[in-house]
Amino acid sequence: MSELPEQVLLAVRHLSVDFTLRTHVLHAVRDVSFDLKRGTTTCLVGESGSGKSVSSRALLRLVDRPGRITQGEILLRDGAGFTDLAQLPPAGRAIRAVRGKRIGLIFQEPMSSLSPVHTIGSQIAEAVRLHTGLDRRAARLRVIELLRHVEIADPGRMFDRYAFEFSGGMRQRAIIAMALAGEPDILIADEPTTALDVTTQAEILDLIKRLQAERGMAMLLITHDMGIVAEVADEVAVMRFGRIVEQGPVDRIFHDAEHPYTRRLLGATRKLEQSGVAGRAGSAEPILSVRGLGKVFPGRRQWFGSKGGDFRAVQDASFDLYAGESLGIVGESGSGKTTLGRMILRTIEPSEGTIEYRQRNGRVIDVRGLGKEGLRAYHRDVRLVFQDPFASLNPRLTVKQVIGDPLAIAGLAQGRGLDRRVAELMELVGLDPAAMERYPHAFSGGQRQRIGIARALALDPRIIIADEATSALDVSIRSQILDLLLELQQRLGLSYLFIAHDISVVRYFCHRVAVMHRGRIVEIGEAARICSAPVEPYTRSLISAVPNPDPRAKRMLHRHRFAETV
Question: Within 10 Å of residue 56's Cβ, how many Cβ atoms?
Fold first, then answer.
């Protein structure tokens, strides 16, 4: 392979990976070819199930059984020649010498990649000693240097901390430090920012790009987010159903895409840069009024009976929600968004403040003062759509049982009447009623979220609290679910309290936005104004950290950084 340019560190040629299952053979990766070049970022992009992660793991021979490479070459530059990694035994010494030392890997979920019973420093030190042969004392100094390099404050003290004592962003920085322990030539980052807030995501992407530039590494970044691709990629390969359907320079992919699937991905991403809501048509009186709402969680008992300090999750939250309106509650993890939503449902009891709900007959009731029967009636009108469509559905119940459960519990339908109502609800959310006897595992992620929406609509509610209802979905599926919710709003006159950390989703879906930071609502107003001309510094930092799906106008390069004041 001497004809390959010198900057090519890894060349993948006609790679195929199959999984031999009990009933059939799954062709997870089919005839995939691409190059990784020194100092260049190649993004492998596509939706769930497209074969991205399997392709990346195949490069290190980490494909789980019954998966196996059936054809192709994985050519790693080795001096003047190349070594074909596809020919190395998956558990042999030769491939183990490549993992970490020549090719580093950053996993998607740092919490599952780190041991909860070993300190962060000891885990990174193990990788350092494995690849460098340093003694324990020298390895500790090297780890502290790596932690400082990935911008973890006070690295000497943080060496002895455990994973649960790190924030999500700090855990991901620790994983990056571990991936750099062997000073690799190539870095594979598999969805490294999926579980992170938008500002933390921007910081991690900045860090990875800086480290890549300093070390001249080739990088393979796996993602489904076209905004991230526009911000960081030099080359792009678009995958669908195990194949690369289009690849080329990032500018051509975004501005002159040829394949219909690539254009569809880009269209679904750019769609969220605009507003999808019509003007609010409803009464001038709010359907829900929240004033001075707060929640304090008491400190936990520590050793010897001492008590930790109380934690104030929400403080002095006030807003109104109108009939037919979508109000977004946006902020980072830990800002109090979910706690606020659950207080409104009273699944968490508020510590202070008032929640007033205007009933269908116009009577205003105090939600905090409701007893068991009153709360049951309130919960018919105010329903919840959960974040995770996989975890929120009981796998042992059929779809008919999942959707019909609220109706059966409320005594509103049974027998054939229940079947008819479930069929109506499934048709309403775009599902085939003939599938009502199937179980949730037989449905895709987007279909499962539709099932969750149908369940929420079963009791004919007036308000739906959607808690990160689209964050677990691919971009095209997310767009479909948002459009479904907007259509249901128009048809049924629903009001939404839409909790999210994704500004682009809130901009598309909501009439107004309330921005939360450290338990407080710091800014509230029309969505168009908040997203285009925010007043508060924290809001500006959130908006500016959202990736822009155009490589010619990279937003994150010029983002506003929020400085905490004490």
Answer: 22
pTM: 0.85
Domain with CATH 3.40.50.300 in the chain: 286-299+306-536
Q: How far apart are CA 488 and CA 324, in angstroms?
A: 10
Q: What is the pLDDT of residues 239-290, one digit of tens each?
A: 999 999 999 999 999 999 999 999 999 998 998 888 888 766 556 789 999 9
Rounded Cα–Cα distance for residues 403 and 452 (Å)? 8
For tokens 């304090």, the residue is 296
Assess contact for 510 and 498: CB atoms under 8 A: yes
Contact by Cβ (8 Å): 60, 15: no
- What is the chain's Cα-based Rg? 26
For the domain spanning 286-299+306-536, the CATH number is: 3.40.50.300
Nearest Cα to 428, choosing from 492, 494, 495?
492
Residue 411 CB burial class (10 angstroms; 0-12, 13-18, ≥19):
exposed
Structure tokens at 420: 């008819």
In angstroms, the CA 285 to CA 332 distance is 30
Q: 506-541 as b/e, with b when 16 or more CB fall inside 10 Å?
A: bbbbbbbbbbbbbbbbbbbbebbebbeebeebbbbb
Strands, E, within 424-510: which ranges?
463-467, 495-500
